[in-house]
Amino acid sequence: AAPLTSLLRDPAAPPLARAACLRALLSLHPAPHLPEAAAFLNDGHLPLEARSDVANALASLTSPESRDILTQSLRQAPDRLATLIATALASSAPGADALIEAIDLGRAPPSLLAQPSLRDRLLALRPALATTIARLTASLSPNSDRLQQLVATRQAQYSPAQANPAAGAQLFQLHCAMCHHLAGQGGRIGPELDGIGHRGLDRLCEDILDPNRNVDHVFRYSIATLKDGRAIAGLFRRQEGALLIFTDAAGKDIPIDQSDLLERRLSTSSLMPEVFADLLPPPDFQNLLAFLLSQTTPSETPKEK
């Protein structure tokens, strides 16, 4: 174990060799190396092949702890890795249950269930999941194929040598800081972004261009229908006596008296609009990516996606 651990912790070693060491260590002594496996799996700067090797090794352990790592990693995994993790989870009935729960809670994209091979695996293990899968996929956007192609195009276009992180920082302040908190500044409508660079290029492109792909319940907006015929969309923040306080996409608080409320419905979507492909031409988009990828310092306390 000692030489394997030494090689695993050597950042200069080839990623596939490090993944092989981690697989071996997980088979020898799983518990001490689970935190390292989680860190490896969530490191967006490592190649997909190496991260998928670790995902398969974790799935083979079939323990609650290893399943927790896999489902937690779905929060920030890019689409290709999320598919591999989901397939690994679907190799056992408890893993299938954990995957469905993660998707239901908005911690993994429902679009995973649109893949016939994964859906067939899940139904073979848990036939009773058919109704749940139908419910989770009912609201999939017909726009998803176009956005997936757009994401792939912007990923392929990215060139660090041509990107300007300083210009990206200015774009972040202009377009993102109203909602997102980073390095002690900005709004708190959306997820906090300290350490966001660890998500890697693929996932950042998905988060910016296709914000409705993977939305945690915490960041799904509500639609409040009022008795006077108005409909208000915003994130529910808190209750103050008889007042329900929502926040709109501009960060403005909207108080609603409970007596005026006719219906309140939780959306499956994010307040973040799908406009950044048009709002940011490719050079600006590259600059923003370069800035976000440079943000690798985590916050002091973990923040939910």
Pick out its properties:
single chain, globular, two-stranded antiparallel ribbon, disordered C terminus, 305 residues, 7 strands, 14 helices, alpha+beta
Counting DSSP E segments of at least 2 residues, the number of strands comes to 7
Radius of gyration: 21 Å
Helix/strand/pairing category:
alpha+beta
- One letter per element, helices H and strands E, the order comes to HHHHHHHHHHHEEHEEEEEHH
CA-CA gap between termini: 35 Å
Contiguous helical run count: 14
Helix content: 40-55%
- What is the beta-strand fraction? 5-15%
Instruction: Determine the mean pLDDT.
Output: 88
The largest pleated sheet is described as: 5 strands, antiparallel
Task: Describe the structure in your own words.
The structure is a single chain. With 305 residues, the protein is an alpha+beta fold. It contains 14 helices and 7 strands. The strands form 2 sheets. The chain has a 5-stranded antiparallel β-sheet with strand order 6-5-4-3-7, with no helix packed on it. The protein has a two-stranded antiparallel ribbon with strand order 1-2. Strand 5 and strand 6 form a beta hairpin. Helix 4 runs antiparallel to helix 5. The radius of gyration is 21 Å and the shape is globular. The C terminus is likely disordered.
Summarize the structure.
This protein has helices at 2-8, 15-28, 30-41, 48-61, 64-73, 79-89, 93-104, 116-125, 130-137, 144-157, 165-175, 200-209, 276-279, 282-293, and strands at 181-182, 185-186, 220-226, 231-240, 243-247, 253-257, 261-270. The protein is an alpha+beta fold and 305 residues long. The chain starts with a helix and ends in a 12-residue tail after the last helix.
